[in-house]
Amino acid sequence: MMKQKHFILSACIATALASGAGALKAQTVTGATSAIATIGNINEAPRVNRVVTYVSVTMLPKTHLAVVAKASSSVPLANETKMDHLQLVLKPSASRMASMEAMIANQHNPSSPQFQKWLTPEQFGEYFGVVDNDIAAVTSWLTAQGFTVNNVYPNKAQIDFSGTVAQVNQAFHTQENIYTLGTEKHLANANDISIPAALQPVVAGVIGLDDFHPTALHTASKSKIAQWSASKKRFAPAVTQKAKGSEVAGEAIPFSDGLRGLVPNDMVTMYGIRTIRNNGMTGKGITIAVVEDGDMAPADWANFVSQFNLGQYGGTFNLINPAPTSGPNNCTDPSVAIFGEEPETILDAEWATAIAPGANIEVASCSSFTADLSGYVTTNFFGGTFIAATNLVNSATRPDIISASYGFGEFEVGSAAKTAIDLMWAQADAEGISVFVSAGDSGSNPSFNNGVISGEYGNTAIDANAFGTSPHDTVVGGTDLADVLDGTTSQYFDPTPSVVGGSALSYVPEIPWNTSCGNGVAATAAGYSGAVAFCLNALAHDPNGDYLTSEGTSGGPSSVDAKPAWQRQVYNAAVDQSRDVPDVALFGGSYGDYTSVIICTAAYPCTPGWTGPVELVAGTSLSSPMFAGIQALIDQGLAARGLPIDQGNAAPTLYALAAEEYGSATGPTPASLATCNANNGAAGTSSCVFHNVTRGSNSTQCVDEVPEVSTPNCYIYGAYGQPGLRGTGFHVGLTSVDAAPTTYGPGNKAYGAQPGWSFTSGLGSVNATNLLIAWRAFDHAPPAAPQ
């Protein structure tokens, strides 16, 4: 049966390629009436049914961060300190949550009358939020404690309020302190908060009581500044920068003399975009919002569009600071004049455009700080990024697609913040917004961006990005191009590339992005028996541990969110009960940092003929906005057949299509599982929707320092200093699925690529043309109109 399905899908793709993609029609507008008609009883009784008093209080578990116990010191925060725009997270009833999940599942089911009948924020709040009487009880209590209630969001799931530290301490029975952790100082509450027991049924907690903000995954320190050599047709470093990780052993790897900077046309070729672009699919009419906590100069985007000849497609750029629908504005502009340019923002905006040059790009940014830098606008865990995203999702004018390149492991996030994130992405899904989130840039634990995985603050070597583990968004991991390590560059890239035009000749085999010595493909290329032997060689050349790194694509199981039904259906889905990430992957970076992408910035503008230095960047911060761009092409292509533009969370459809190509979780595997292996490159894969990444790993380096620091899930292979393995001293290892590993190999590394789904690359990368054709078939699109 699976072989037959793949044959039919392949035939459909072949026919569509022969006949063209069809012309764009006006979007079909569908109301939400039928979506909510079958929800059931919406007249829920109030759950606050007792007098709100402090005679009886209830502690809310996991509402403070365990990491503060590792602080070397703490001092109380001054009572008069302002705490602005805190978010009280409301807790919908279990029955409403069940109804919400059932409705969203039907919104993604082509056989359901609720299929793609998306809601407005007000409808979401009316049917799945907390009832008005309960909200009134909560806001009355907040006001009685001296807080200012700024607004209740339309989703009826969060309340924005402000106050002082003294009011917070008294109302929530906690103590706000300044903690010293290593060289950093952080604001956090000392214990789990408590509230009147009468409010417990409807309150999940408060976010903003600590300031542990994840930074953008891409930072300036990760960029390379390079100069184009017209004679060598490649880039050379223009600024001397410290090598990291794998580069210490680079003498054994066949790198060319210079650096490779990929351009938009390279991705267009590699990911099968050219055919549908030639048929008019450019993202026209689709709005992609990249949510940020920093701004960029609009001239950077214009420079990028001009340099790569993308202006012909008619895309637009808009820089916005989304305000809430009512009440005081909690979104302050993180202006370039005050904060400077944010490299993450530039990367996100430019590379969403690179894939969908006809789309409307919105940089939606909110600062975590006041304009005069006198304090925080919000101490929300995800800071301005969360505020930008939640204000967009609750606004009257919403984007079709959101991309977020921010992340931190679930270990670092309190229960209230996680509840708020998950509700926000569920609301976005119910409204038809497709959300893409970067997996992270530090192997099996995304909390160590620009660092090395460690158990210093109680972490293990395994975690997953809390911003993406909701079942209502699609997490995008990063791949590496295997041609350099395989010695096949001449097969896949033009020997005399044109930078503006690109040099990729076809799809290029991919492996998981992993810059550490845990990269088994690099180990093989260098002549070693495996990653451990490769790492021991690196250790011999790096006796002080200066080049240790955990940099690579992230992935792992959620410790909070359960596995959705759609994730169980594909071959080799993890046998667990967790929401597992990533879902898909696109190019993110390379071993030895040989291959990156070009961005145009104010500091390093792109110039005709590449006469000046440029900035080369990498990371899953690139992968997410690129997939958002692909979704814009899909949305426009579906609208061209009279279907709704908005698709909601892409993941359920992606997994359904992958089950056809890779096989289901049970039963025989189809021939297409082997055909669509990424290792095949362009050979025989022209009909594949996915490129299945099956070799390599995202198992990266990890460290501990016994007896002070022990890192679970870290296989120790060496030590710096004496006496040695697992004795007192500084140790280095590779991440493992075993809590206390004594061996390391394919069966226990965290994690290895494999056929079907994997923790390294999810379902793999995609061919955008074939994905559009398959998606149209899945959505029962009518045939193209006669020309």
- In total, the number of strands is 32
Alpha-beta classification: alpha/beta
The N- and C-terminal alpha carbons lie at a distance of 35 Å
Oligomer: single chain
Uncertain ranges: 1-30, 248-255
Rounded Rg: 25 Å
- What count of helical segments does DSSP give? 21
How helix-rich are the residues, as a percent range? 25-40%
Query: Per the principal axes of the C-alpha atoms, what is the gross shape?
Result: globular
Q: Strand portion, in percent?
A: 15-25%
Largest sheet: 8 strands, mixed
Give your account of this protein's structure.
By secondary structure, this protein is α/β, with parallel strands linked by helices. 26% of the residues lie in helices and 20% in strands. The protein has 21 helices and 32 strands. The strands form nine sheets. Strands 13, 14, 15, 16, 17, 19, 22 and 25 form an eight-stranded mixed sheet that branches. Helix 1 (2-19) crosses helix 21, helix 11 runs parallel beside helix 18 (620-639) and helix 18 packs across helix 21. The two termini are 35 Å apart.
